Amino acid sequence: MSSQVRLRLLPSARCLFDEPIQVKVEGLRSRQVVTMRTRLTDEKGVVFSSSATYRADGSGEVDLKRDPSLGGTYIGVEPMGLLWSMRPDTMHKRFQKTRSLEPQVVKFSVHEEEGRRLAEETNERLLMANGFNRVLVKEGNISGVLFTPPGDGPFPAVFDISTLRSELRASLLANKGFVVLTVTVPTDKAGKIQEMHLDMFEEAMDFLKQQPKVGGKGIGIISRSKGADIALSLAAFVPGVDAVAWVNGCNANVGTPLYYKKQQILSPLLFDLSKCIPNESGAVIAKHALDDPRAEKNKGSLIPIEQATSHFLFAAGEDDLNWDSKAYMDQMVERLKCHGKENFESVSYPGAGHLLEPPYGPFCSSCLHVESKGLSILWGGEPKIHAAAEVHLWNKIQKFFKTHLICDKPQTKPSYKFKKKKKKDDYKAGVKEK
After folding, report:
1. How far apart are alpha carbons 366 and 372 in whole angstroms?
2. End-to-end Cα distance, the chain
């Protein structure tokens, strides 16, 4: 490596996973062309990497906040492009970060056109700041992980219902000042859901409410995909839900009958995998495999969200290829309006796909689906637009919960190790809010 070239990650090489960093290179020759690279290995041993070509300015500096990438895995001025444009070395793999105690290590490096490495730096992206508590929960029918901020509280509580096992969303949300319990939608060994009982999720809600640092009588729920219709059902049938963040879900009960207090309350909206459209990559588009929830035969699967007293945040990616979440969102908005309800807000993202996650993780175009009989599913989304949508939605979710989850008394703010800067709205093009 060149001793005069310096690669800097600002303000620090250690940060929270959902925080942006500034990448700068100093000590290059005037107008020198270099290649920037990143590389990480996830918990399943899958390697993700990205690259971009830059031309230094007259002073021999490259600043990713200012300078455009001329080629590589992205082009243009993209300060965090080296992170969200990382791709797996094996097709149809999703970045997996199930454990929150260890940071995600990302290697940044800068290379000459000939390939010689000039400088490198390691970025540690933490899921938990100092002082936060993580506890495995195995109690009754509950199997999950509880995250608690430091301080006496009280803190608002959020129930995270996940379909893909991960602690990423829950731990990062706890860093914003929430007590968060995350559980994964249960499946059998074959990845199938035989029948779903709302009681087990109510049990988890009650456990969360009883935590000593939790303030307020109600909780929030965050969910995506199949977890989103469970969240809607909890809001409609179970008291104590004050706010629901619904992301790329359905307005009906998908896949399996739903029971509550030993009685079936919703019939299943079924899907036909023969309607999946194969793609040249070997993955399939499943968008049209799910039955139409508006059909007469499926009316028993529609979730009566007009019964809910909670506030709703609906968010949909308009390029969702898993199913038509934008249409389902529009149908819910219409249903609530027909019942004279105003307890909702909605936002849609043209160009964003199904897997809307906390920002700055590698974009996933396709991976194996839990209930697809071994098929890999195309999730949709144009990487650059999808990444911007994740930044916008993540900030919106935090604001939504802080607005609608009220504590009994003034809460003690958690102490963070990392300073946060106010960020402007990063999603500029095409966001549609109502």
Report:
1. 13
2. 52
